Amino acid sequence: MVRLNEKMKEIFEKAPVYPLATASKAGEPNVAPMKSVWLVDDETVWVADNFMKKTLANLEENPRAAIYLWGPETGGCIQVKGDAKILTSGPEYEKMRAEVKAKSEKYPAKSLIVITITEVYTCAPGAGAGDELL
Fold first, then answer.
1. Are strands 37-41 and 44-49 parallel, antiparallel or unpaired?
2. CB-hemisphere CA count at 13 Å for 98?
3. What is the pLDDT of residue 1?
4. What are phi and psi of 87, to 5 degrees?
5. 3 state SS of 98
6. Is 90 left (phi over 0), alpha (psi -120 to 50) or beta?
7. What is the dihedral angle through the alpha carbons of 65, 67, 68, 70, rounded to the nearest 10 degrees?
8. Is residue 24 included in any domain, yes or no?
9. Which residues of the chain have pLDDT under 70?
């Protein structure tokens, strides 16, 4: 199992937006900015599905995802890849739904995407750009 270290968790927490990349079974890519994202533990990310269309369709066909983590205040840049599952019921889904609805009733919180981290790469410029960290 891949577990984020303290620096990686700090980058994750400080990222202002979380671009989520997916691909269809045929390899058609999609990337969408996400805001309702939580680092649940050192190896699990939750993403709330409020308005997903292509992203959700891609995950149904190909349950792999990547999240790009960077921002002016993060102090670094990483890409997290992992295996995704879609939940529409159960305690995890209900917890996510309650958190999203507490922010605003305008968000539908249709499903919960649970990403188990399998790989982490650096995306900082320089000689090591793209190197696998975990």
1. antiparallel
2. 7
3. 73
4. -115, 135
5. helix
6. left
7. 180
8. yes
9. none
Q: Which residues contact 22 (CB under 8 A, 6 or more apart)?
A: 29, 30, 31, 54, 55, 58, 59, 62, 64, 65, 66, 84
* CATH code, 100: 2.30.110.10
pTM above 0.70, yes or no: yes
In this structure, are residues 134 and 74 in contact, taking their beta carbons and an 8 Å threshold?
A: no
pLDDT digits 0-9 by tens, 113-124 = 999 999 999 998
Cα–chain center distance at 54? 15
For the chain, what is the domain count? 1
**What digits encode the pLDDT tens for the residues 92-110?**
999 999 999 999 999 999 9
